[in-house]
Structure formats: C-alpha cells, structure tokens
Amino acid sequence: MGDSEGGSLNSPLREKLGASDYLSVWKDYGVYGIVGAVVVGILIPIVLSSVFMGKKKEKQRGVPVQVGGEAGYAVRNAQASELVEVPWEGATTMAALFEQSCKKNSQYNFLGTRKLISKEFITASDGRKFEKLHLGDYEWQTYGEIFDRACNFASGLVRLGHNLDSRAAIFSDTRPEWFIALQGCFRQNITVVTIYASLGEDALIHSLNETQVSTLICESKQLKKLAAISSGLESIQNIIYFENDGTENDISVSGSMSNWTVSAFSEVEKLGKTSPVHPSLPSKNGNAVVMYTSGSTGLPKGVMITHGNIVATAASVKTVVPNIRRSDIYLAYLPLAHVFELAAESVMLAAGCSMGYGSTLTLTDTSNKIKKGTKGDASVLKPTILTAVPAILDRVRDGVLKEVEEKGGLAKNLFNIVYKRRLSAVEGSWLGAWGLERVLWDVLVFKRIRALLGGDLRFILCGGAPLSADSQRFINICMGAPISQAYGLTETFAGATFSEFDDTTVGRVGPPLPCCYIKLVSWEEGGYKSTDKPMPRGEIVVGGFSVTAGYFKNQEKTNEAYKVDEKGMRWFYTGDIGQFHPDGCLEIIDRKKDIVKLQHGEYVSLGKVEAALSTSNYVDNIMLHADPFHNNCVALVVPSHQVLKKWAQQAGINYRDFSELCDKAETVSEVQQSLSKAAKTAKLDKFETPAKIKLLPEAWTPESGLVTAAFKIKREQLKAKFKDELQRLYG
Ligand SMILES: *[C@@H]1O[C@H](CO)[C@@H](O)[C@H](O)[C@H]1NC(C)=O
Ligand SMILES: *[C@@H]1O[C@H](CO)[C@@H](O)[C@H](O)[C@H]1NC(C)=O
Ligand SMILES: *[C@@H]1O[C@H](CO)[C@@H](O)[C@H](O)[C@H]1NC(C)=O
C-alpha cells in the first residue's frame, strides 16, 4: 500500500553534502572561555536546576474522536474540533492561495537566488575535476513580481500552443522557476506532473507517457538526456528549459528533437507578457499535481494530488510552526519533486515568508561546490526556518562529533560536560533548558555550531524518514532550535502528523495535523490491535482533507489503499504500524509490509533478498532484518548442519558442539562470504546484503512458533525471540 513516501530522497543528499563541513567549528576556543564556562556552567546550573526542576504537566496534544469507516481507535488534533480545510476563507485552491498571498504581501521579498560570480574547475591529485562556485548575495523578487511572472508564464504557455487539455511536467532540481512554472500552470488549470530529477530513464519515459505529457519543463542540462530518449517520448510537443545564470546553455537541438518546439523559460514569459491570456482557474477538487514517487517495487506510481489537498496541508502545517510570519526566512534546497519540500514551500507561501534557494552542494561554507573562502547558502541567507531529512541531520551530528573527538583535551571535555548538562535539562524539565544556563552555553559553546547553518535558525522541520532519537537530541541541543518531526506520505500530501515545538520527547511523530484524523486499525496477523493496552496499536490510516485522490490510471492499487466511508471521508491505509501515546501523539513502531525503508531512503524487500541469499548451500533458513534507523541490513541464519560440518572438517576446524562452531569467527566469515557471492549473483545492492550475520544452531520449526506450517518465517516472532542477537548485530 503506502510504500512510496520519501522515495529515495536521502541518498543523493548524503553523497552531496561536504564531508568537511564541520571542521572549522572548534578551531579557536580561548582558554578564558573554557575556564569561565566550566565555572559558570557547573555552579550556576546546579542552583538553577534545583530551583526550576519540577515536572511540567503533560500537555494533551491529540484527543480521541468518533469517526466513520472501519472500526479502530481514532484521534484528532486537540486544537481543532473541526478539520481545517483552508488557510483562510477563499483560498480553496493553490491558484487562489498564490494570488491572494501575492496580493497581501506584494511588496515583500518572496523568492531569492544567489548570483553566480564565477565558476572554476579544480583538479584533484587523482585527476578528477571538481566544479567550484563563487556565489554572491541573494537577489530577491517580491511577491508582486513573482505573481506577474507566473501570470506571464501561464499566458506564454497558451500562446506557445500548449494544448490546455493535456498535462505539463516539471523535471528539474529545485529553483525559483520551478515554483513559478508550477503556479503558472495552475492559473490555466493545467495539471503538473512532477518527476524526481534522479529517476532513471525507464521511469522517466513511463511517467511522461502514462500521463501523456505534452509540455516538458526542464533544465537546459537535461536536454541532451531527453534527446537521447526522444523516441520513447511520443506525447511530448513542447520543451521549455530553464536557463542557467551566467553560463552557456547547451541547447544544440539534435536531429531527434526536431519534432519538438524548444523554448527558453524567459522567452515563454516574454511571449505571455506581450500577449496576455485570461486565466482559467482550477477548482478545489481538480487535479493539481501528479507526483511520481519511486515505489518500493517496479515502476513509479503517480499520486493524484488535488488543490484541496495542498491548501489543507499548508493550512495545518502553518499552525505547527510557532508564530510563523512574514519576517521568517526559509532555505529551500530539498527536491521540489518530493512532497515534503512542495508542502513546505506551500506553507511559506501561505505565511508570506521569504524563500531563498540553495542546494545541498552549496549549503555550507565547506560544501563540495563552494569555492574555498566563499560563503555557503546558509551563511549568506541566515534562514530562520529549515527543512531537513534525517540523513542531513545525522551528517551534521557526525561532523560535529568527529570534530570534537579530533580536538580532544579541554575542548572535548567542555563539550561533553555542557552537552550532558543540556541533555539532562532538556529531558528533566523544559524550563531548565530555557534558563540562564542555556544562554551561557549558547554563547560559549553552541554559537559556533549554529553558525554552520547561518546562526538564526529557530525551527527545523524534519521529515522523509524517521529521525533517530540521538540525532534529534543532538541537533536540538547544538542548534538550539526545536525540531518537529513530520509523518506523512505522498498519498496524504505530506500531511498526517507533526510533532509540536514544545514536545521534548524523542521517537514520536506528534499528534494528527488539524486537517486530518489518524485511526489505528487492528492488524490481527501482525498481533497489533486497536484495543491493545497500555497503548492502542494498529495500521495507521489517515482520513481527511489531505488524503489524495488515488494513483493515476491505477484503479486497482487505488482501491487497495484508499477507502471512502459512509460520510464521504477518504481514508488512506499507510501500511505502517503505529501506537498512540496517552497524550495523543503517534509513534511508528513497525511496517506492515515486508519492505523496509532504510535510513537513507533505500527500500529493502526482505523476501526478495532472503530468497536470493537462500541459494547459498550453507543456508537452511534465514531472516533478513532491516531497520529504518540504520542504513544496512543484518541477518539471522540457521546454517545447514551437514554442509557446515563438512566445511569445518575440510578447513581443519575443531569444535566441541555445533553451537560453538556457529560462534566461531571463521565460520561466520565463511558463511558471510557465501552470502555475498549469492547476493552478487542475484545483483543485489550493497545495502541489501547483510553487513553482519548471526548463525543460530537450532532449526526454526512450526512447533517453536518461529515458522508457519508451510515453513514461512514469522518475522514478528523471530524478531521478538532474537531481539538481543539483533541488537548486538547493530551494535
Ligand atoms: C506509451 O503508452 C501507450 C499506452 O498508453 C503504449 O501503447 C506505448 O507502448 C507506450 N510507449 C512507451 C514508449 O512506453
Ligand atoms: C516526427 O514526427 C513524424 C510524424 O509525426 C514522424 O514520422 C517522425 O518519425 C518524427 N521524427 C522524429 C525524429 O521523431
Ligand atoms: C480543469 O481541468 C479539468 C480537466 O483537466 C476539468 O475537468 C475541470 O472542469 C477544469 N476546471 C475548471 C474550473 O475549468
């Protein structure tokens, strides 16, 4: 069912972020600072804590609610007795929201980009070439100017001859023109197909063909790639490309593109400006976007997102960001073809904020593409609000820790003391964390770390995959900004739950957003029931205004995952298993399918991998274990007694009993090599191949309850029985 949230968002980002981003934090601590910090930091907090400690009363964030449809345990946001549908009256579509927000904020900055000052290539010692950019300040356009550009683009599309009954697609990295093109299409009631810029050719051809896209909007750097596959792009008539600032645009139209009308984005804007066309605005239930997500299996699926879905999520997420306002600055750098970024930018639009565009390659002063001695996007923009995926936050944490470790000595001790004090303050009482102690630590220790991301961050939205408790705490403390964890899927236009800024717990994803209800429906096979004590558990089902219209041209899959109840409310069955805490916050505890998304966004199909690994002669039975908090898998293996003993004999290995043989490092290594070979033969990816294995001497039998009568493994039971073994494999 809902196996497509997140896509492979994390993997490209992980590679791009500069490894040395955090290396300059600890360079110059003064000795005075350290001594002062220790004195002030140890004496004052002790006094303060004893004054302010005292547990705060638990806030009720979600409350049970009666709903229609399948039986279960349903919860709504505690603040909203009626579901929120629009940010304000009249903003029922994205086109209306855009127009009204642009009018309201017309003279304020909206979209900004950095000017390219120069570009150079440096050659590394191994001969590889790296592009380095020298980027200038942000240059801004106001809400009024952006509105005009979107109107011009909309008119230009019509003048260009785009058939208004057909769709347009955007295939590009995140940039302001992406957003302008989207809004332009909406003003002519054109549905926009979005495709991940990192999707493979087959997926690209499939998506464009399935939706019969006639106008493709892309970056000039994509033109070559498109020309190469043009024979598969039968429905395309127009190509509109975004020009690159200050560099040559490679638009040499090759023969195979001769059937296409190829135009620059600015030409289309000009065309529309000189001959405007009346808008033809969409309606609330109209299809705004068909968003292709890299599903866990096979070709990507297109999720049909209505205008109503987008404005509902935007309206409710806006209530989650404390006091979001016009003066807030948002750094936009995640892929817009991912629901999380599109939802976030819609929130900023609704709130009248400024959005400065950047990229993962230029995010910080030491990012890969930033020319040495020049500034990264965050340092120049100084954002107050940032979205991030766990891979990025993990990276920040690892970088800072590595730096602390390398620095050693006083700085390391200081960091550790301060970190521990802050941690206990955060965990003990929120008040303590806001006290004088906090201010001191901020000035003395954390200011430098914060400067990595500009220094002015006051709120981080994290989504796309689960964030580990460690990283959440670390970023919380070091960045000094609350992190809200979002849980949502493309199918619910990112909107499902959102943790609140004053919730200091870890590992939970908050109460339902005000635009939807969350219901837990019992999943008997898995042993999760909505009547479970102490917490109701079950499959997470989302109902309300953010629930999308279904999968494009795929009624079967739509019927499997979506249901409409007797009151007309749409529900989406996520396939995730959750439990509700007494305060109405959701925790994701499992996944219904045997498909697991690893920490960096790759999917592992447990059954597929197990089947492949079972071809090794050593394997009698195997259970692969993957966990969204890790980026590799591990496996429990019951080896074949016969084959293993034979090998031991030949290898001259002595052992008392089979159990001891299984524990020997040589044995484990031998079996693991055999598994790697099997994985290679089956063309498994590295992340699918178990990084560590545990050999278990005893067979899994139906009697022991570890496999079914048909000898199918029972994951939940195995996981429970070998909990400690699994934990050690990850340790
Ligand atoms: C495009 O879709 C049509 C059906 O709508 C199909 O017949 C055709 O083979 C597809 N072309 C490609 C290149 O996938
Ligand atoms: C261009 O279109 C014509 C007719 O639609 C077709 O016969 C021809 O093969 C196309 N050329 C290319 C290069 O795709
Ligand atoms: C928008 O376009 C769709 C078809 O794509 C159509 O069904 C709908 O009626 C149009 N909406 C308006 C308000 O014209």
UniProtKB/TrEMBL annotation:
Pfam families membership: AMP-binding (PF00501)
GO terms for cellular component: endoplasmic reticulum; membrane
GO terms assigned for molecular function: long-chain fatty acid-CoA ligase activity
Keywords associated with the record: Membrane, Transmembrane, Transmembrane helix
Membrane-spanning parts: 29-52
Domain AMP-dependent synthetase/ligase: 133-552
PANTHER family: LONG CHAIN ACYL-COA SYNTHETASE 8, LONG-CHAIN-FATTY-ACID--COA LIGASE
Protein name: AMP-dependent synthetase/ligase domain-containing protein
Species of provenance: Lithocarpus litseifolius
